[in-house]
From TrEMBL:
Lineage of origin: Bacteria, Bacillati, Bacillota, Bacilli, Bacillales
Species in which this protein is naturally found: Lysinibacillus macroides
Positions of the Calcineurin-like phosphoesterase domain: 44-208
Pfam families named in the record: Metallophos
Gene3D superfamilies assigned: 3.60.21.10
Protein's name in the database: Phosphoesterase
SUPFAM superfamilies, per the entry: Metallo-dependent phosphatases (SSF56300)
Keywords recorded for this protein, A-Z: Hydrolase, Membrane, Metal-binding, Transmembrane, Transmembrane helix
GO cellular component terms, A-Z: membrane
Gene Ontology biological process terms in this record: lipid A biosynthetic process
Superkingdom as given in the UniProt entry: Bacteria
Keyword Transmembrane helix: yes
Gene Ontology molecular function, alphabetical: metal ion binding; UDP-2,3-diacylglucosamine hydrolase activity
Length: 271
C-alpha cells in the first residue's frame, strides 16, 4: 500500500511539474542602454512574443494577451513560428494575434515552421488583414521629434535566400549610422547580424534549449545541436546585442523542463 502511494505521489508530481513548465507564463525584463539610442526614443518599450506553435494559454489565449497588455508595450514583435507545421491550425494561432493587435502596433517575421507549411502567402494575408506589420526582408523607419530609428525584419533562410542577402536587401536604403532593431527568427546567425552592424536583435527558434539544465543552460536547439550557445537571454559582440526568447510553445519535442514559457520586455535607454 505504501509503495502504491509513493507511485501515485510520483505520478501526480510529474504531471504537475510538466504542466507548470509548459503553462506558467513568465515575463523577462531587459534594458538596452546605448549612446546610439535616439533621445526621443529613450524609454521605448518593446515586447517580444516568439514560437507560439500551437500552445494555449487560457480560452482564446486570454492569459497570454493579458500578460502582454500588463507590460504596457509601445510595440510588439513576433519573431516567427506563430504556427506549428506539424499541427497547422491557422485560426487557432490567430487568436493570440487578434488580441495583440488590439494592444498596439505588431511587427512580425517568418519562422521556419511557417515556411514548412508551404502556406506563407496564406499566413501573410491572414496576418496583414488583422493589421500586423509584416517585415519580409524590409525595414520601416519610426520618427519622433525629428529623430529616427529603423525596425528591420528578415524572413527565414528556408525561403531560399541567405541571411546575408536578406539583410542587405532589408537595410539597403538605411543610413549606416541609423539605430537598427532587427527581427530575425534564427539566433545561430548572430555573427552575421554582428557583421552587418545591427544594434539590437530579437530572435527565438531555440525554445530555450527545450530542456534546461540548471546552472548549465539548454540541452538542444534546432540549428545548433546539443548544448547550444544561443538559447535564452542577451548576447553581446562588438556593438551588437541579441536577445533570445525561450518562446512559448513546443513542436517535435512535446514538453519543456526547467524552461518556462517566456515573454520578453526590452526597454531602450539613452546612455
Amino acid at each position: 500500500m505504501k509503495k502504491l502511494l509513493y507511485v501515485v505521489f510520483f505520478v501526480v508530481f510529474i504531471v504537475i511539474f510538466l504542466y507548470v513548465n509548459n503553462h506558467w507564463l513568465v515575463v523577462s525584463k531587459h534594458v538596452f542602454e546605448s549612446e546610439k539610442v535616439p533621445a526621443s526614443f529613450d524609454g521605448l518599450r518593446i515586447v517580444q512574443v516568439s514560437d507560439l506553435h500551437d500552445a494555449r494559454f487560457g480560452d482564446d489565449q486570454q492569459k497570454l494577451i493579458a500578460k502582454v497588455q500588463a507590460t504596457n508595450p509601445d510595440y510588439i514583435f513576433i519573431t516567427g513560428d506563430v504556427i506549428d507545421s506539424n499541427r497547422y491550425d491557422l485560426q487557432q494561432s490567430l487568436q493570440a494575434v487578434r488580441g495583440l493587435v488590439d494592444i498596439t502596433d505588431v511587427y512580425y517575421v517568418l519562422g521556419n515552421h511557417e515556411v514548412a507549411t508551404n502556406k506563407v502567402s496564406e499566413i501573410y494575408e491572414a496576418l496583414s488583414s488583422l493589421g500586423v506589420h509584416i517585415l519580409a526582408n524590409e525595414s520601416t523607419v519610426l520618427k519622433r521629434d525629428g529623430e529616427r530609428l529603423a525596425i528591420v525584419g528578415i524572413e527565414d533562410p528556408l525561403m531560399g535566400t541567405s541571411t546575408e542577402d536578406m539583410l542587405d536587401i532589408a537595410t539597403a536604403n538605411l543610413p549606416d549610422d541609423m539605430f537598427k532593431l532587427l527581427l530575425a527568427h534564427r539566433p545561430e546567425m548572430f555573427r552575421t547580424y554582428v557583421k552587418d552592424g545591427i544594434d539590437l536583435v530579437f530572435s527565438g527558434h531555440a525554445h530555450g534549449g527545450q530542456i534546461r539544465i540548471p546552472g548549465l543552460g539548454g540541452l538542444i536547439a534546432p540549428g545548433q545541436g546539443l548544448f547550444p550557445k544561443y538559447t535564452a537571454g542577451v548576447y553581446e559582440e562588438n556593438t551588437t546585442k541579441m536577445v533570445v526568447s525561450r518562446g512559448l510553445g513546443n513542436s517535435s519535442v512535446p514538453y519543456r523542463m526547467f524552461n518556462l514559457p517566456e515573454i520578453i520586455v526590452m526597454d531602450l535607454k539613452k546612455k
